[in-house]
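Tutorial, part two.
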Amino acid sequence: MTAPRPTIGLANAVRSGGRSALEVVEEHLAAIEAGDGAIHAFNLVTADLARHQAGAVDRMVADGEDPGPLAGVPVALKDNLCTRGVPTTCSSRILAGWKPPYDATVVERLRAAGAVVVGKTNMDEFAMGSSTETSATGPTRNPHDTTRVPGGSSGGSAAAVAAGFVPLALGSDTGGSIRQPAALCGVVGLKPTYGTVSRYGLVAFASSLDQIGPFAATVADAALLFDVIGGHDPADSTSLNRPTPRVVSVLDDGVAGITVGVLTEFLDGAAPDVAARVHQAAEALAAAGARVEEVSVPEVTLGLSAYYLIAPGEASSNLARYDGVRYGLRVDSEDTATMNTATRSSGFGAEVKRRIMLGTYVLSAGYMDAYYNQALKVRTRIIEGFATAYRRYDVLLGPTTPTTAFPLGEKTADPLQMYLSDVCTIPTNLAGHPAISVPFGTGYDGLPVGVQLLGPALSEGTVMKVAAVVEAAAPTIGVPVLSGEARS
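Running the prediction step on this input gives:
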């Protein structure tokens, strides 16, 4: 793997004229060409477009203009973010070759900040998966061990940053799809408060849960990217019409006086090596001046069952638009109904079909009250449980994932085991709160462990400054030790 470049220094070098944006982009394109054959982080590399954008940045610098805080920085986009004139497929056969006529708001904001988009990253089909194995283009592999998954559904974005192909990437998080792959790939992944980052131009999976967020090698770089993409957007009806927290300015504030609750429910299901790293992170925060206690939020144990009723229900509605008439694939047949069926049968993969059928069932007459509406009530209970905890604690701490990265193919035949990969991340999506995964050493197998920090709505500043302290304390060598005793 190539070591990731620090984004802030790279942008400042381009802005000052010390480096050319085109030179920076060529370096990263060369790294992608040399290494992505073994990883498959990208569905599409937009090399010519990236060179054109880099040239525009260099011309602005030559003219004495400031291209922006991400001047010349290569960024990768998950393949469910619309880019004008560039294929946006959601890693699905049903959208093969589809080129949106507009840019997502986050793409516009990246370009306005001087960033250079170098390509579209692989993902679980329509973001439905936890390992990037449901992609119609084939799986992405973990750069730390190519026999392991990178996580999902934003596995391509996480792997691209982990492999050093790009300093920054964007993903979407519906039930953990930024934080879970960030943890398994050993990078930083932030799921912002619902509504703080525009979803305009994000191909919808579950509209009340989806949120766009950054991947980066460091907390500071993730904070910089969040500051660029966040903010109200009148084109998105769910966008919060209030100031978005700005986080770069508070990263060095420390944790003195901060109260941290260690979530016992998340630790209960975690592997011993992952739990050990969480306890080690808690000790580091206490040593830095935070008050750290264990806390129980029993409602979070209900998250998985509620999510797998709400998310498929919304997905079945959102994906109804792919009918062979308006978008992408069309399988011709003798009449419209048969064409619709043939197109969807051929175009969607097994996991997407499974969730559409589940969602249609729970929304159907006679079952909606028993399942979907009941899940919404459970969602409210989870929100109330978090609210109670946040009256005492500023942030909560736990594992991002129950284990380190698992082998490719290990869980594809058992959907329930795959769904359990997101048990620690789903509750935050149901509540609409921010959370971040920070790399914190490795497990017994030498693969990355991510610890997760959660906060109430619009607490990104607090979450990120705590994350910066955790990051600074992260172990770089050795195996985790639990309760003062070495692993037997």
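Residues 21-39 form the longest helix (19 residues). In part three we will examine how such features are distributed along the chain.
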